[in-house]
Amino acid sequence: MLLGLLFDIRLQRQYERLRSMALPSPFSSPTLKTNPCGSSRVPTTSSVSHHHHFLTCPSGGEPSPHRKKSQSLVVLGHRQGQPLIENCILCDRKCLRELSSWGIGGPCRYFLRTSGASQLVAAVRYCRERCIPFLVLGRGSNCLFDDRGFDGFVMLNRVDQLELTEPGVYRVGSGFHFNRLGVRCSAEGFSGLEFAGGIPGTVGGAVFMNAGADCQETGDVVDSVEIVTMDGELQVLRRSELAFGYRWSAFQDMKDLAAIVAVTFRLTPSTAATERQRAFLERRRRTQPIGERSAGSVFRNPSGAEMSAGRLIELAGLKGFAVGGAKVSNVHANFFVNFNGSTSQDMLALISHVKESVDKKFQIELKEEVKYVSHRTQM
Ligand SMILES: Cc1cc2nc3c(=O)[nH]c(=O)nc-3n(C[C@H](O)[C@H](O)[C@H](O)COP(=O)(O)OP(=O)(O)OC[C@H]3O[C@@H](n4cnc5c(N)ncnc54)[C@H](O)[C@@H]3O)c2cc1C
User: Which residue, by CA, sits nearest to atom 46 of ligand 1?
Assistant: First the structure.
């Protein structure tokens, strides 16, 4: 515990010092880097895909010709922080079901709870040096973990500093609870994140997924995003570079992304924000299985179709349909709940059955919104 604290303080100082040397402020029109693509993409065993990071050894691969070396510096010295980080890593002891809103998943090989940006960066570098596949996890409210767990490194992101830099402009650590941020901004008289009330994820997860509800989306109010790349470099990306779309951000395809570290939101003043949020929360309570173990909507709403995924599933007669311990919610057909010790196999079988049924009845192919994390990555 004490060791972890010392570790964090030391690395935090290094991080802040190097950040101030390396990065322009997000508010002062930084020279932005294009998104270089370096590492190989992870194939998945299911169409329920997940982008986790498969690392090439620094010594092994050629640098990408697209990579621009710019003002962003490598964050820490070569070996700095490494012995300390080793002392904080749990091996084969953390069960992913504890970290997932579905309550499903086996153990991960390595686990670290990161509470400072510098610690997150050091963990990325630790994995890279050892060619360990890794996953940055927020609140696990959009992930399906495998029963066998994850044969790699899970960094539980709890980087949760918040700074109000000017009225309506919030620079927030990516591990900050998104629900809490939405409630706070609305209560402080700013509009744009009312919908975040009730979303049980982190800021990083919300930006990665472009989470949204009630005609609002995360990307609409993002000003800039600070990331760390696979090379341990810090970059600041502006909203225009992030291709936000329906439950989509450029991060989902960004092979060089190691982790989202902080996000700056620019909100507009509104005296009605709290009232609007109250109405959104009320609708949530009426229409969603609050208190049950779910991961929110399993499928994206199909583009071009007149009906939502939930409505299609309901019309296919599948509300309440169960496989093992996994069930289509009786309250909202696009929420699947772990009602009785569901395994990942139960949930995958249920997802697959619902897809087939909807396809058969409506000739519409549903696409998963949730991310499946397979046990092993393959080259
Ligand atoms: C009850 C309930 C209600 C929900 N309602 C909504 C809703 O209204 N709208 C909506 O859009 N979603 C909703 N969701 C889904 C989910 O909460 C959101 O997608 C949320 O944004 C996920 O955040 P997370 O931190 O839990 O992400 P995680 O599940 O931890 O991760 C999701 C993905 O993001 C990546 N990721 C997370 N953090 C980082 C980071 N710092 N750097 C890089 N990658 C990262 C992960 O690697 C993973 O690929 C709901 C879920 C539940 C359980």
Answer: 137
ipTM exceeds 0.95, yes or no: yes
Mark whether 147 and 168 lie in a shared domain. Answer: no
Per-residue DSSP letters for 231-287?
A: TSBEEEEEGGGS--BTTB-GGGG-TTEEEEEEEEEE-EE-SSHHHHHHHHHHHHHHH
**367 assigned to some structural domain:** yes
**142 plus 18 within the same structural domain:** yes
Residue 286 lies in a domain: no
Is the CB of 51 within 6 Å of ligand 1? Answer: yes
What ligand 1 atom has the least distance to the C-alpha of 120?
41
Q: Which of 49, 199, 235, 299 to mutate to test the pocket of ligand 1 (most atoms within 8 A of CB)?
A: 199
Judgement on whether residues 21 and 58 belong to the same structural domain of the protein: yes
Q: Is residue 289 classed exposed, middle or buried when 0-12, 13-18 and 19+ CB atoms within 10 A define those classes?
A: middle
How far is 91 from 268, CA to CA, in rounded Å? 45
Q: Is the pLDDT of residue 63 over 80?
A: no
User: Domains in the chain: how many in total?
Assistant: 3
- Say if residue 353 is in the same domain as residue 313: yes
Query: 200-248: per-residue pLDDT in tens?
Result: 999 999 999 999 999 999 999 999 999 999 988 899 999 999 999 999 9
Say how many Å lie between the CA of residue 85 and the centre of ligand 1. Answer: 26
Final residue belonging to a domain, choices 242, 274, 306: 274
